[in-house]
Write a structure and sequence with these properties.
Helices cover 56% and strands 0% of the residues. It is built from six helices and no strands.
């Protein structure tokens, strides 16, 4: 977001502007906690479900973010990586999470 850095960082903590906006809606414990990364799924079934969701969202005719990529290449990636061939489970999980997020943001903001 194009905000001045003085609004973004306060007392060495990031997201200051965002946290100030939410302080009346969220408990201080939530606003002050350390950032944690999303847990990496250990069960391959959850990654397979995520691959299926990615395919459903990005390769459908309703996809709003499809203009950014070649559908055939995405389909090929999902097909080959879905078997975890030469890419780690973590990489598959991260890439599909980014693609799902991109699509859902486009749908939410009607981009």
């Amino acid at each position: 977001m194009p905000l001045p850095s003085t609004l973004k960082v306060e007392n060495g903590h990031g997201k200051a502007f965002f946290k100030r906006m939410l302080r009346d809606f969220l408990p201080a414990a939530i606003l002050q906690r350390r950032k944690t990364h999303m847990p990496i799924p250990r069960d391959p079934k959850s990654v397979y479900r995520q691959i299926a969701l990615t395919r459903e969202l990005l390769l459908s005719s309703e996809s709003r973010s499809a203009r950014y990529f070649d559908r055939r290449r995405v389909d090929d990636f999902l097909e080959r990586r879905g078997a975890f061939g030469d890419v780690s489970v973590l990489a598959v999980w991260q890439i599909t999470m980014y693609l799902i997020t991109l699509e859902l943001l486009h749908r939410a903001y009607r981009l």
